[in-house]
Each structure stands twice: as structure tokens, then as C-alpha cells.
Amino acid sequence: MQRLKTNNFSLQHSLECGQAFRWEKKQNGFYYGLISNTPIKIKQEGNGLIFDSYKNKINTAHIKNYFALDLNLNEILSSIGKDANIARAATKYPGMRILRQEPWETLASYIIATFSNIPRIKKCINALSQKFGNEIEFDGMQFFTFPTIDALAECREKHLKLCALGYRSAYLLKTARMLRKKIENESFDLNSLKKLPYADAKSALLKFPGVGEKVADCALLFSLDFMQAFPVDVWVKRVMQEMYFSNKPISNRKIIEFAQGHFGKYAGYAQEYLFHYRRNHVL
DNA sequence: CTTAGGCCTCGCTT
DNA sequence: AAAGCGAGGCCTA
Q1: Nucleotides of B under 7 A from a protein CB
Q2: By CB distance 3.0 to 4.6 Å, which of A85, A123, A180, A270 could disulfide with A263?
């Protein structure tokens, strides 16, 4: 068991705000999940984190990176906190941070999430992992790593469909195959997108089937360190229309444009606070 | 460039 | 119980 002191961080809010799909809280108070394909259990006591991982593979540096503890949340909040809406949402979920997840898993997960709902998304991802990932036993339980690009690229669409992906299975399969080809030809890595300007990284992602603006922005924000990415789903659209456009219908394009101008370089953080706030409260 | 319809299924509500 | 509805969008026309 390892320990790590944190500042201005809430494990619960960060794991339960809907950005990650695989964490599960058990009776013993620990959240169980995987970081870097390694099973881990973690809980918070006060401002300290207590965690234990498979073969002790996860160290405090991994934790700091995954939970973005290197960023100064107060600075981020004052940067996006231009109005009362943000202030209200941020007060409601103190310590909520945007995680740094794995790019491939994030991209694939949000392709799957398209036009779906959370229980179903979780079910699909777990089914995929069970079928095409590796099994690892930890703390008396079975864990399955998220399938690699190769593992999915090599499978048949009918097997993907068994995971209840519906029409998304074709998108996921094609994306995996395109990625594999890219990697073979030019030793490409999704992580390399981090070095590009936001617009370039986004247009690179938009080339993959099943990846539109929303999915691309999710991958950019949740796994590639683009804090200005502002994914607009039905909830964000709803809350933005209500809070900033006096309930008038407005295009996603305009919302993104407005948000990135209004909230600035950490617009993605504003998105996550507003999203979570709106999902849990009726205004 | 913008807009409308279809879409695999599942989860949740009548 | 069975059926209808809406779902954390994308693609195509």
C-alpha cells in the first residue's frame, strides 16, 4: 500500500464526473480500475491518497500524472471562472480534475459512446476488454486490460457486434485498422498528437471513421492534454443554451467558438464542471 | 458551409 | 409484460 499527499483534489468527483468509464467503487471504499494496463485500487482519506496496484507497478509519479496533480487547479479555476455559472459548478465539485487517460482507450471509448448511454457504454467496454484484452488477477478479482489496437484490428466485425456495439462496431474496427496501418508505415503514435497545435491534432483525429467533432474533442481533452478542447454533447449543449444563450437553440460550432473565447485556454475544464453540474441538477 | 434524417441496440419508463 | 422512447453523434445526401 502506498500513500500520496494531494492538494485541491477529489478522487470521487474526478472519477465520477463521467470522463472515465471503467472505475468502480467497492464496499471497502476503494475505487478499482486500471492505469497503464495495471489493475489498481485507490481511495482518499482527507487530502491523502492510498493505493495498491498489481505487482506494485504503479508509483506516485503514475498517480500524479493520471490525476493531473501537477496542474494548479486554483489557477485553472480562476482562469475559467469568469462568471457565476462556473463559480456555482466549481463550488459544487471541489477538487474535480480532468484525468490523463490513455489516448487509444479514450478514443475508442468515445467512439463507442456515440448516441448511447452510460450503463450501456460501460457494458460495451467491459465486454470488449473481456473478449479482447488480457486477464490479470488482482486483490482476488479478475481485471481485463483494454484491448490493444492490434487486438481489435485483427478481429472480425461480427465478434465486435457481440459486445453490443451496434453500428459503432464498423467504425471502431476501421479506426483500429487505420491506426495500425499508420503505425506500421510511419511508426505513428497517438501520443505524438500532443506536440501539434490543437487544430492540427483535431483534424488528424477527424480522419478516423466514427470520430466527429465531439469524439475528437473528448480524446483531445481527456487524453492528449488539450485543455482548450470543448466537447459538446447533448448535456453541454443544453446547459450552454440555458446559461449563455437564453435558451435559444444554437449550433455546436457556435457553442465551441463562444466557449473557447469566453473561458480561454482551460475551456475544457469549464465544460467538465458545467456538464457534471447540469447532469446532476435540474435548473 | 449548413441542415435533416437514419441508424444498432440498450436501458429506462409506461 | 410488452412496447415505446431517448440516448454523452456520425455519416451521407
Answers
A1: 2-3, 7-12
A2: A270
